[in-house]
Amino acid sequence: MAMLVLLLGDADSEFCVRQELVSDLARLGVTNLELVRDEHTVGVVLEGWLFDPARSAGAAAEAVGAAAEARPLHQVMQLALAGHSAHDAVASAGRLTTPSEGGGIR
Questions:
Q1: Cα Rg of the chain (Å, integer)
Q2: CA angle 70, 45, 81 (to 5 degrees)
Q3: pTM of the predicted model, to two decimals?
Q4: Which helix (H) or strand (E) holds 7?
Q5: Choosing a second label site near 30 at 20 to 30 A (CA), which of 1, 58, 93, 100?
Q6: Are 53 and 70 in contact (CB under 8 A)?
Q7: Domain edges within the chain
Q8: Which fold has domain 2-74?
Q9: Over its length of 106 residues, how does the chain's per-residue pLDDT go in tens digits?
């Protein structure tokens, strides 16, 4: 599933999910929207099987009303952890990597 995170700078403003927003994002192939925030930033996480973030990041930012100030973050890697031990080989960004001695992935 493709994912795009739009970082919006103003955490003080309210973010409202209206039907028009939902319809616009659905036309882009988005099937899931999550809202995350801290005291400085609001993030809108968009996911969808038919969503193409590389092609639609600008339209998605426009749909959420933040075309000018949105900072898009594109997914680089996804890793499913269930059922894997630290000693298993793990696929990472198209390469097969192995755990390092310190327990991390190289």
A1: 17
A2: 135
A3: 0.71
A4: strand 2-8
A5: 93
A6: no
A7: 2-74, 77-106
A8: Alpha-Beta Plaits (3.30.70)
A9: 899 999 887 766 677 788 898 999 999 999 999 999 888 888 999 999 999 999 999 999 888 877 677 888 888 888 788 775 555 555 555 555 555 555 555 5
